[in-house]
Amino acid sequence: MDEQPDYSPLRLGESVPRFSARSTQGHVDLANYLGRWVILFCHPGDFTPVCTSEFIALARATDQFVQRDCALLGISVDSLYSHLAWIRQIHDMAGVEISFPLIEDPSMEIARAYGMIGAQAVDAAAVRSTYFIDPQGILRASTTYPATVGRSIPEMLRLLCALQRTESGEALAPADWQVGNDVLCVPGETAQDALRPGDRSSWFYSFKQDSL
Ligand code: BEZ
Questions:
Q1: Cα(98) to centroid(ligand 1), Å
Q2: What is the DSSP letter of 2?
Q3: What is the rounded distance in angstroms from the CA atom of residue 11 to the CA atom of residue 1?
Q4: Which of 16, 70, 141, 167 would bridge 132 by S-S if both were Cys, CB 3.0 to 4.6 A apart?
Q5: Under a CB-based contact definition with an 8 Å cutoff, are residues 150 and 54 in contact?
Q6: Is 161 a catalytic site residue?
């Protein structure tokens, strides 16, 4: 039996696989994105209803990601010419321009390296995986949705903002956090911290105003 490459799922904190590929905005080399945040997201296929709704919503929100120095990179196994025909149709139908690169991955090499599809998969049935990659090329978060449910673009933006806000390690983002809301303090890790007078009920759970 031929030796299979190692396609183990990506873990948070790991460097993401580098790739270089054709896209609707010319050649994309992931190495050129070092220094910026990147959201790499795959979709099951061009010319499908849920994917079309996601691309229309993302086209309308692209500026908000760019303002946060985050590049959007879409990817699917469809060919570059399919991508071009699809974004043209989206433009004609919805009046929006897909200004971020949509990458072709017909060999599924990138999809397999990221675990977007099973290592042994023979068809193109990728799920809706999204990878939040920091400026050092490290995976900071990922989400996976089924083909039948579209992603929430406000939640993608919220997660990006929360990752950027907490990357220094001096604050945590609580449930439902939004930009401007209070953040959680990082709890102390010693008995002295836990026993500090006056802090008994909340040494591990206290908020501070967000000053950023
Ligand atoms: C969709 O985007 O609508 C879709 C894609 C693949 C399977 C089912 C739905």
A1: 19
A2: P
A3: 28
A4: 141
A5: yes
A6: no
Please give all residues whose beta carbon lies within 6 A of any atom in ligand 1, as ranges.
Answer: 44-45, 48-51, 147-148
Question: Could you say which of 42, 51, 70, 161 is catalytic?
Answer: 51
Q: Any idea where the domains of the chain sit in the sequence?
A: 20-150, 168-212
Give the Cα separation of 140 and 133 in Å (integer): 6
Instruction: With H, G, I as helix, E, B as strand and everything else as coil, classify residue 132.
Output: strand
CATH number of 20-150: 3.40.30.10
Segment 114-173, tens digit of pLDDT: 998 765 565 666 789 999 999 999 999 999 999 999 999 999 999 999 999 999 999 999
DSSP H or E segment with residue 60? helix 49-67
Site to substitute for ligand 1 among 89, 148, 149, most atoms within 8 A of C-beta? 148
Q: Which two tokens stand for residue 44?
A: 């099951």
Ligand 1 atom closest to 150 (CA): 2
Q: What predicted TM-score, i.e. pTM, was given to this entire model?
A: 0.92
